[in-house]
Amino acid sequence: MAMAKSVAEALVEASAALGNEPDDRRDAARLLGHVTGLSRSDIIAHPESLLCSTHLIELQALIERRRQGHPVAYLIGTQSFWDLDFKVTPDTLIPRPETELLIEIILNQSNSAPKTIIDLGTGSGVIAVTLAAARPDWSVIATDASIEALRIAQHNGAGLRNLNFVAAHWLACFDGMVADIIVANPPYIDPLDSHLAALVFEPQSALVASDNGYADLKTIIHQSTRLLANDGYLLLEHGYTQQDTVMREMRLAGYAPTAHWDLAGNPRAVMGHRKETL
Ligand SMILES: C[S@@+](CC[C@H](N)C(=O)[O-])C[C@H]1O[C@@H](n2cnc3c(N)ncnc32)[C@H](O)[C@@H]1O
Q1: 3-state SS of the chain?
Q2: Is ligand 1 within 6 A of the CB of residue 145?
């Protein structure tokens, strides 16, 4: 049986087992916090507190799985996004910080008038839930083709009365509806992209799109013109090499597109304004 250790000793050991890079130390601290229920500030304030042997064994098992490549978010079952914590499972993409750009654009762009928003491919629900929580007078619809992902999004959005969920392939079931904003972070990775090798634990249906990664972006641009209100907006996240093509596709569909960059300076999103003449 493992001997009791202080949280400081356990953290040093876990960080070293992962490689001791800054990311490894952060991962070790998240796993330690998950196992013990201690916050980061608890760990810093009381490094001498003892970890019981059950927690130590649990931590060692999680560290081993992390060493095998399992993402921390799946190991602990949550990921923070904007100002909330979201349940995530291997059925959902792990929300990325760069997707917060979409929230920033929508909240900065929009006046306070009530709006109808559709979040396509909601995954764990991060975009829809964050917007619904930030703007209780907006009506938000979250959709996904994956029923398993939609269940997780429903869990994350529980209690928000301005949020509804629909299982759908992009905008196929929404004829007759009018939306003020359509937002999506669709799959956009080329099936041959070498980065996919590092993403094997996440659902490939959330990541990969045919046509060099453009198939879903193009489908959404095309379908959205039927639903967006005049003066409405289509906001799409895309890969960092895809901005010119997304801008061009949006112009072809009659949108006036604006380019946006993430905090790392990468081209990351395009916002299309639907002009009155469409
Ligand atoms: C890149 S993930 C984005 C998840 C979440 N919005 C986020 O930003 O973390 C793309 C999502 O699109 C969904 N998806 C893939 N193909 C779809 C389709 N044809 N119709 C609707 N959703 C689809 C996937 O299940 C996945 O949840």
Answers
A1: CCCCEEHHHHHHHHHHHHCCCHHHHHHHHHHHHHHHCCCHHHHHHCCCCEECHHHHHHHHHHHHHHHCCCCHHHHHCEEEECCEEEECCCCCCCCCHHHHHHHHHHHHHCCCCCCEEEEECCCCCHHHHHHHHHCCCCEEEEEECCHHHHHHHHHHCCCCCCEEEEECCCCCCCCCCCEEEEEECCCCECCCCHHHHHHCCCCHHHCECCHHHCHHHHHHHHHHCCCEEEEEEEEEECCCCCHHHHHHHHHHCCEEEEEEECCCCCEEEEEEEECCCC
A2: yes
Distance 263 CA to ligand 1 centre (A): 23
- Rounded average pLDDT over 21-41: 93
CATH of 5-76, one of 1.10.8.10, 1.10.3720.10, 3.30.1540.20, 3.40.50.170: 1.10.8.10
Q: Whose CA is nearest to atom 17 of ligand 1?
A: 145
Q: Is the CB of 99 under 6 A from ligand 1?
A: yes
Q: Is 267 in the pocket of ligand 1 (CB under 6 A)?
A: no
CATH for 90-274 (2.40.50.140, 3.40.50.150, 3.20.20.70, 3.40.50.1390): 3.40.50.150
pLDDT, tens digit (0-9, with 9 covering 90-100), for 131-175: 999 999 999 999 999 999 999 999 999 999 999 999 999 999 898
